[in-house]
């Protein structure tokens, strides 16, 4: 263990010790925002009890009354094909640090329905997060419990698109096509996800090559359409689509599709957790792309010996094997990964939001 890792773990332990005396229990309830289920976790004084959803086992006070007071909100955007429960450890850490966490189940890109995986969900996700904020602002109970002028967003994997877009970054399908044309083999976990069979892979590769020799002005409009943040103008310099979003954290994010220029325009704090051995989203194309171009972004944790899904907890073995089977490369937990590094990263995310949102 190097000295830096030792001190990071010690800091996480000290934070737990000094905040433990005032930490709340973790309450959980379910809301419906339009057609979108939302899991809400929040501080409560009620005792927790075991609660299981399929293979996921948690300790929560189900439908308990929230603690008195007003709390900052963090909207948490899950990974592709995911749900609220693999991110429950992080949500609980945030709750104990004084936040309310809202976890929407993204339409068409969740564990029950993954029909919109990829660019279709990338386009939808930021609006779904804003829809959750709006719904909570109008809710008779929760509007009184939340500080909604400065909201946090956390995104894991595909949820990174949510976070970066709401921070003001922009992407195009052309960015994706050109990235995968140049780096398809090196970043095949991203570029060929869902196209493992030879025929599907060949078709995907052909689509990447289709724009190689054509000038941009003759390409179809759908390739050039800009998604995500706003294009700044002299009268509207803020690139955020919603100015309530005041801080963003990212964990192993999808990021290669975002333009360097738009990343450079981000002005709010962005904290990033990287997994050094991520083969699903190779760090030099994704996490490091953000850090290279975004001047307000900083690395919160660089998890050694960690694969993509080591960032999640709880992560039952049966689920891990099933999800790994859908990946082109990587996906299984790394035997050399120390879970204490993940716990320390969760603490640093909580501290990042505490510093930038207050709690």
Features:
UCP031982_abhydr, 359 residues, single chain, Dienelactone hydrolase, Rossmann fold, AB_hydrolase_fold, 12 helices, two-stranded antiparallel sheet, 10-stranded mixed sheet, alpha/beta, 12 strands, 21% strand, lipid metabolism
Walk me through this protein's architecture:
This is Dienelactone hydrolase. Residues 1-24 form the signal peptide. Keywords: Hydrolase, Lipid degradation, Lipid metabolism, Signal. β10 (245-251), α9 and β11 form a beta-alpha-beta unit. 45% of the residues are buried. The protein is globular, with a radius of gyration of 20 Å. The chain is built from 12 helices and 12 strands. It is of the alpha/beta class and 359 residues long.
Rounded to an integer in angstroms, the radius of gyration calculated over CA atoms is: 20 Å
Number of domains: 1
Beta-strand content: 15-25%
Strand order of the largest sheet: 3-4-1-2-6-5-7-10-11-12
Classification by helices and strands: alpha/beta
Unreliable parts? 1-22
Question: Overall mean pLDDT score?
Answer: 93
Helicity level: 25-40%
Question: What characterizes the major β-sheet?
Answer: 10 strands, mixed
- How many helical stretches? 12
Taking the alpha carbons of the first and last residues, their distance comes to: 33 Å
Determine the CATH superfamily: Alpha/Beta hydrolase fold, catalytic domain
Q: What string gives the helices and strands in order?
A: HEEEEEHEHEHEHHHHEEHEHEHH
Number of strands: 12
CATH architecture: 3-Layer(aba) Sandwich
Organism: Hydrogenophaga palleronii
Signal peptide: 1-24
Keywords: Hydrolase, Lipid degradation, Lipid metabolism, Signal
GO molecular function: hydrolase activity
């Amino acid at each position: 263990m190097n000295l830096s890792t030792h001190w990071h773990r010690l800091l996480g332990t000290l934070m737990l010790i000094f905040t433990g005396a005032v930490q709340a229990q973790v309450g959980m309830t379910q809301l419906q925002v339009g057609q979108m289920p939302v899991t809400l976790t929040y501080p409560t004084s009620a005792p927790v009890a075991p609660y299981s959803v399929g293979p996921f086992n948690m300790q929560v006070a189900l439908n308990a009354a929230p603690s008195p007071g007003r709390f900052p909100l963090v909207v948490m955007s899950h990974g592709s094909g995911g749900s609220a429960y693999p991110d429950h450890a992080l949500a609980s850490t945030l709750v104990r640090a004084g936040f309310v966490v809202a976890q929407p189940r993204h339409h068409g890109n969740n564990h029950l329905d993954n029909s919109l995986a990829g660019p279709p969900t990338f386009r939808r996700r930021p609006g779904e997060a804003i829809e959750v904020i709006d719904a909570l602002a109008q809710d008779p109970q929760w509007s009184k419990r939340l500080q909604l002028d400065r909201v946090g967003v956390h995104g894991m994997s595909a949820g990174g698109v949510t976070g970066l877009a709401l921070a003001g970054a922009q992407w195009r399908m052309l960015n994706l096509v050109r990235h995968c044309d140049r780096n398809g083999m090196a970043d095949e976990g991203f570029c060929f996800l869902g196209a493992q069979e030879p025929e599907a892979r060949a078709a995907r590769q052909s689509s990447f090559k289709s724009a190689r020799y054509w000038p941009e002005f003759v390409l179809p409009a759908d390739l050039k359409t800009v998604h995500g943040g706003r294009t700044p103008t002299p009268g509207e310099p803020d690139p955020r689509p919603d100015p309530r979003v005041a801080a963003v954290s990212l964990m192993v994010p999808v990021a290669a599709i975002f333009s360097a220029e738009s990343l450079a325009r981000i002005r709010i704090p962005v904290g990033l957790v990287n997994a050094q051995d991520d083969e699903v989203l190779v760090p030099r194309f994704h996490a490091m792309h953000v850090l290279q171009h975004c001047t307000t972004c900083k690395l919160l944790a660089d998890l050694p010996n960690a694969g993509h899904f080591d960032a999640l907890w709880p992560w039952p073995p049966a689920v891990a094997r099933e999800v790994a089977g859908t990946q082109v490369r990587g996906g299984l937990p790394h035997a050399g990964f120390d879970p204490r590094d993940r716990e320390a990263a969760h603490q640093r995310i909580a501290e990042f939001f505490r510093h930038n949102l207050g709690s």
